[in-house]
Every structure is written in structure tokens, then in C-alpha cells.
């Protein structure tokens, strides 16, 4: 049941591609909780996705923006504050892309131009977004900025390749800019490390189905679904989490602190044929 947690709050939600996207779920939840917002994505992604349907459902304006372009981000924040009638209370950064993963290049054969694109799209775009917001003084005091990360920022995972470095950089930017914006405007900046989720982007990673099942068996609560991640984002946008900042918050059903589970032991035992 909605509780009007975001009544009167306005913001920007990036990265909604289709109904599988976490950003899509965040938009729906934020709308149900009383928020108004602008939707944004890269022009190419918008042509591939279904964002117009979401905009109609939520009564939201769409402002296309390439998040690697400072000029386009400046236009995004200017249009958002004008359309919404003032400064912003929340921003969601749900942006990630690796040409190396798309081209199925393993970690030892990365194309470095692709690597730079991965970092620019998936991490530096977060710094650019925050820097533009700061220069335009576009965020209200006690505002909240959230970016979506993954545990591969701290641990090595096969086939996640250069996105591992991108997520590590993303989390570092959240800490550094969280300190800066906290002192300047009492704005908090956090990342959420989400369970593997069956999104369009996630399904493009090699071996995703196997790891999804492994993580689900490892996690005491099971994998956190996209809808639950959206609820978590809403809680971070709300006034209930005013003093949470510069954190990478695990939203993974307990995966990140589980050594091994009975389900995984049973699976390995059966696979090795060593069971009784």
C-alpha cells in the first residue's frame, strides 16, 4: 500500500528502458508514493525501449540526454527544474553499458577504447551528473541521489569484465561527491548493490542464468527482485533516510555476507557424485 512517502517531492529518473528495468519499477513506485519527475535516457536507448508508455502512465515529461555529454546533462537539469517548478529532491542514476561485454570479449582481450566507453557511460556519467547539478544549484537541501551498483565492484566475477572497474569507480564517486554535497547542501549520495536481476542489460552478461541461480541459492532471503529494489530506492529518496550518505548499500538477500549455503553444498555434492 502506498504511504505518500514522496508526496510533494520532484526528481529525475534515468535509465528506464522497458518493464524489466529497475528504473522503470522505481518510476512506478515513486509515482505511487506521490512524486513527480522527469524521465531521461540516451536517445538510442529511447528508440529501442518503451519509455513513452511509462511516461504516459506516470504523467512524466521525457527529456532525452546522453549522460556522457555535459551539455546534454545541463539541458536535462535545466528542463527538469523548469518543468517541475523548482529544485530537485531526488535523482536516480541507473546507467550502465559495456561494449566489451556486448562483443563478448573476455577480460584478457579487452578493447581499451571500449573500456574507456564503459567507464564514461557507467561511472563518469555519475560525476558529470552530480557536477552539473551542483553548478546549477539544482538540488534541494536534504535531497537524495542514488546510483545502482553491483557486488562485482568488490569481488571478482567471471564475465563481468570491465563493468567491475566501472562499478568500483561509481561507488568511489558516490563517496567523494557525497562528502562534498553533504557539506554544501546536506544532499546525500548513495549506491545500491543489487542482486543479479533479470533486466535487458543483465541478460547480456555471459553465464547470467547460472549465476542468477547460484546467487539465489546462496542468499538466505533469495535474490532481491527489481520491485523490492525500487522500494529501497524510494526509501532513500524519502525523508526517512536523511542521515544515510556515502554508503554502498547491499540489497542482495544476504548474498554478500554468506560464506556458503546448504543449498549450494547440496548442489556441489550432487554434481560431484559424492553424496550418500
Automatic annotation (TrEMBL):
<dbReference type="InterPro" id="IPR002347">
    <property type="entry name" value="SDR_fam"/>
</dbReference>
<keyword id="KW-0276">Fatty acid metabolism</keyword>
<dbReference type="InterPro" id="IPR014358">
    <property type="entry name" value="Enoyl-ACP_Rdtase_NADH"/>
</dbReference>
<keyword id="KW-0275">Fatty acid biosynthesis</keyword>
<feature type="binding site">
    <location>
        <begin position="21"/>
        <end position="22"/>
    </location>
    <ligand>
        <name>NAD(+)</name>
    </ligand>
</feature>
<dbReference type="GO" id="GO:0004318">
    <property type="term" value="F:enoyl-[acyl-carrier-protein] reductase (NADH) activity"/>
</dbReference>
<keyword id="KW-0444">Lipid biosynthesis</keyword>
<keyword id="KW-0520">NAD</keyword>
<dbReference type="InterPro" id="IPR036291">
    <property type="entry name" value="NAD(P)-bd_dom_sf"/>
</dbReference>
<feature type="binding site">
    <location>
        <position position="167"/>
    </location>
    <ligand>
        <name>NAD(+)</name>
    </ligand>
</feature>
<comment type="pathway">
    <text>Lipid metabolism; fatty acid biosynthesis.</text>
</comment>
<feature type="binding site">
    <location>
        <position position="15"/>
    </location>
    <ligand>
        <name>NAD(+)</name>
    </ligand>
</feature>
<comment type="similarity">
    <text>Belongs to the short-chain dehydrogenases/reductases (SDR) family. FabI subfamily.</text>
</comment>
<feature type="binding site">
    <location>
        <position position="95"/>
    </location>
    <ligand>
        <name>NAD(+)</name>
    </ligand>
</feature>
<dbReference type="GO" id="GO:0006633">
    <property type="term" value="P:fatty acid biosynthetic process"/>
</dbReference>
<protein>
    <recommendedName>
        <fullName>Enoyl-[acyl-carrier-protein] reductase [NADH]</fullName>
        <ecNumber>1.3.1.9</ecNumber>
    </recommendedName>
</protein>
<keyword id="KW-0560">Oxidoreductase</keyword>
<feature type="active site" description="Proton acceptor">
    <location>
        <position position="150"/>
    </location>
</feature>
<feature type="active site" description="Proton acceptor">
    <location>
        <position position="160"/>
    </location>
</feature>
<keyword id="KW-0443">Lipid metabolism</keyword>
<dbReference type="Pfam" id="PF13561">
    <property type="entry name" value="adh_short_C2"/>
</dbReference>
